[in-house]
Amino acid sequence: MGERLRPYRVLVGSRMRSQTTYRRSFVSDLLGSVAIGLMEFAEVYVVFANVDVLGDLDFAAAALVFALANVGFSMADLLVGHADNLPVYLREGTLDAFLLRPLPVLAQLITSDVSLRRLGRVAVSVVILAVALPLNDIEWTAAKVALIALTPLTATAVFAGLFVCAAAVQFWLVEGSEFTSAFTYGGAYASGYPASIFSLPMRLLFTFVVPAAFTAYLPVLVLLDLPGPPGTPHWLGWCAPLAAVAVWAVALLGWRAGLRHYTGTGS
Amino acid sequence: MRLFATLVVLGFRRWSTYRLATAAGAFTNTVFGLIKASITVGAIGAAGGELAGYDAQTGATYAWIVQALIAPVNVFNWNELALRIRDGDVAIDLARPMDPQFAYLAGFLGRAIHQFIPRGAPPLLAGALITGLALPATPLPYALGLVSVVLGVSVSFSVWWLANLAAFWLIELRGVLTLNVVAMGILSGLVIPVHWFPDWLATVAALTPYPSMLQAPVDVITARAEGTAALGVLAVQAAWLAGVLLLGRLVFARGARKLVVQGG
Fold first, then answer.
1. Could you say which of A46, A181, A198 has the minimum Cβ distance to residue B197?
2. Average per-residue pLDDT in chain B?
3. Which residues of B touch A183 (CB under 8 A)?
4. CB A16 within 8 A of CB A118
5. Looking at chain A, which residue has its C-alpha nearest residue B130?
6. Residue B263 has pLDDT above 70, yes or no
7. Are B69 and B152 in contact (CB under 8 A)?
8. Cβ A235 vs Cβ A221: under 8 Å
9. In whole angstroms, what separates CA A51 from the centre of its chain?
10. Rounded to an integer, what distance in angstroms lies between the CA atom of residue B135 and that of residue B226?
11. What is the 3-state secondary structure (H, E, C) of A148-192?
């Protein structure tokens, strides 16, 4: 097993070294990423500077939703966000090099880069999570402790799966790659807010098609013992792992189909 | 002036090649518009139906018009000049018998004109169908609004130009450009109307050119600022444009003097 994973370790290690070699560039990139995290939170802050409750959640609860969704998204962005570059690889023919190596192409794509600068946004989200968690009045049980520990992981898995789904579609879209941003980045944006502010069709879209609500809002309803909007059974908050599995199933099937569709860029 | 018009047309034609990309962008702008309108309407509802002069309808309209203007104003990235400074191609721009800032502004405006309808219309149409739009019934706000949008796009260009010039002194520019995106994201009214800001943030915003890019045009189009107030908004935009363009010229001149391009 260890021997089989060695090529990936070497690949990721080389990417990490290359990014941290130029110290000043790396620090400025990190700060940029921190700033993006703060910008995202600024929106929540400004809304709650005007109102006390949004979608039946107070500031502390909304911050918790925001933090959980953002920890998940920024981790996924760090690990597989570069899958977004697939159209560039397709146009330039870089993907052909992946096809020549005796390793799975998807695994190579994922390990072909790791964007350490995005640790900045992860850090911002973790800090907000650490501040927001004690501000909420949670009756802790063993199950809830497990849920809060599990949620960032499942959120990361869901968003990472969405990135792979988006990458799979690129085999057909190439130039229209921005279509998928509506679901990856759009899903991330929607997941940072209480889903109860959305109309029913949008809520269904961001729950069952793009499972953004599973990454933060639904688990937070369970943590806080809140009812949520009508038609939202409580047990849904425990289903995030199922959502992650479903996304990855679609992602892997889609990726397989996309790769078979790929015929090279020619020379 | 003829040269400027030709460059605008060339900018338009350059971007009209990427049709699928434009459609994809319009779709994504529309989905984000849905999310944003939900957040604004949700906040207005939580505030009791009215928030800083916005009711549910005008709040949703705000979100949709902003989404329609994102592409023309070019909120997310412009690093053309920075890349040309880095690889030395800027020497070609300097050798041309026209002012570089003037030429790039023309290209930027041409791009904006191309993006205006194909990327602006879908979010507005979706808005009209889903939430309804609260738009003025008289022609004057639209006429002034058009001027305001052109000024907004130009202010955006002038700020991007300045940020790009950092390439004369720095090798890796991503941090600088990201900071510009972040400042624009918060202070231009992209995600939340500037009128909702708490006092300290409103003061910060007023001291920057960013509100002139999005908040100002939307205020004029929706007739939130009417008559002399609208003219006042246009004057503020024009003042920022003149100031930042001038600063950009000075910095460019300094950078060009320092520039060393390899090769013969």
1. A46
2. 89
3. 31
4. no
5. A199
6. no
7. yes
8. no
9. 28
10. 13
11. HHHHHHHHHHHHHHHHHHHHHHHHHHHHHHHHHHHHHHHHHHHHC
Q: How far apart are CA B183 and CA B205, in angstroms?
A: 9
Q: Residue A58's beta-bridge partner residues?
A: A53
Tally Cβ neighbours within 10 Å of residue B46.
20
A179 to chain B: which residues are within 8 Å by CB?
A: 24, 27-28
Q: How many beta carbons lie within 10 A of that of residue B93, not counting itself?
A: 17
Q: DSSP assignment, residue A67?
A: H
Residue A233, both tokens: 């059974």
CB B65 within 8 A of CB B222: yes
Contact between residue B64 and residue B37 where contact means Cβ atoms under 8 Å apart: yes
pLDDT tens by residue, A38-71: 999 999 999 999 999 898 899 999 999 999 999 9
Q: How far is CA B52 from the centre of its chain?
A: 23
Q: Choose the closest CB to A51 out of B31, B43, B171.
A: B43
Task: Locate B184 and state its tokens.
Answer: 């624009």
**CA A212, CA A204: separation in Å to the nearest integer?**
10
Partner-chain contact B175 A31, CB within 8 Å: yes
Between chains, do B21 and A51 touch, taking CB under 8 Å as contact? Answer: no
Residue B118, CA distances (Å) to A5, B16, B76, B215, B243 in order: 47, 10, 18, 21, 31
Sequence-separated (6 or more) residues with CB below 8 Å from residue A58: A52
A178, closest residue in chain B (CA to CA): B24
User: Across the interface, do B47 and A176 touch by the CB < 8 Å criterion?
Assistant: no
Chain A residue with CA closest to B184: the answer is A39
Partner B contacted by A254 (CB < 8 A): no
Give residue limits of the domains in chain A.
2-261
Has residue B264 got a pLDDT over 50? no
DSSP character string of B23-80? HHHHHHHHHHHHHHHHHHHHHHHHTTS-BTTB-HHHHHHHHHHHHHHHHHHT-S---H
A31 touching B (Cβ < 8 Å): yes
**Which of B23, B35, B186 is facing A42, going by the closest CB pair?**
B186
Nearest-neighbour CA in chain B from A41: distance (Å): 10
pLDDT above 90 coverage of chain B, percent: 49
B42 vs B55: CA distance, rounded Å: 11
Q: Distance (Å, rounded) from C-alpha B85 to C-alpha B252? A: 11
Tokens 């909702």 belong to B196
Residue contact A49–B198, C-beta within 8 A: yes
Taking the C-alpha atoms of residue B118 and residue A133, their distance in angstroms, rounded to an integer, is: 44
Residue carrying structure tokens 């009045």: A137
